[in-house]
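Re: that chain you flagged

S.,

Sorry for the slow reply, it's been a week of failed gels. I finally had a moment to sit down with the sequence you sent. For the record, here it is as I used it:
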Amino acid sequence: MSSVASHKMMDEEVHEKEESSTCSTLLICLSVAIIILTLPFSLFVCFKVVQEYERAVIFRLGRLMSGGAKGPGIFFILPCIDSYARVDLRTRTYDVPPQEVLTKDSVTVSVDAVVYYRVSNATVSIANVENAHHSTRLLAQTTLRNTMGTRHLHEILSERMTISGTMQQALDEATDAWGIKVERVEIKDVRLPVQLQRAMAAEAEAAREARAKVIAAEGEQKASRALREASEVIGASPAALQLRYLQTLSQISAEKNSTIVFPMPIDMITYFLRSKDAATQQLAQAALAAMDEKSSPPMAQTTSAMASTTATTTSATNSNNTNNHNHNNNGNKDIKSLEKSA
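Prediction finished late last night. Pasting the structure tokens below so you have them in one place:
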């Protein structure tokens, strides 16, 4: 039964085709007759011109003519039974509006992009889809949202070229059936919330400060090593330290400073300390000698002599701390007084 039904359907289709071909033939003949009768005015209606970047898709009695799109240049149509559609083959630019996207790590960002596309097959773009350009634009918006939703925030910020390539490949595969060729996709801008921008800025600043501290510590470590080596070199030669003092003075004086700080060598200070110790020892020895000589007098005199000697020694020590020259003179006077008391 099924074979019989299929044969009947085939016979009906063949019969309909024969009838339609007969009707189309009659209409074509009538159109040609009209063209002949209205010459030369009908030529303005029959001949059409398309530009180099355009193609014409012709339909005759609602059916797509064989041979594909016509153009560029002049082509011929029959009035009343032929219709055609112009298709622009130039590259078009579509600015994708900002899309609010929730990333894979739950961060809301606003992303916009630019899509460059063109018609690669004029016949398919007219016959297979109602509006190829509008469909491509809607698909671009959806693809942008889907692609960004599967990425983390750091990937969106750092891998724009990779994301653009992925979007271009996905759009090109989807629009190939519509006769559209997607040439390029570019991510224009990624807008982050203000609070997230502040948090990221604070994090980046903290990271930079940490790196700066590490670099400063490494620099101080290297400087300390260099100073240790320099001190070892200078310690081997005492004259090198004095030369370094003179070099420092020359550097300070070159900066037009009114005050110059001159470091006093430690050897000179040691010399003064030694001279003070020698004077004190001489005074003590003289006091002991005087006490030995006058051991027979009463205890009161001995006590007064010791008190005077102690006072004299104390005054000599204080005067030595103030001035070395005065210290020597006072020491001589004390010695004379001790001799007289003895």
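What I noticed first: The radius of gyration is 55 Å.

Talk soon,
D.
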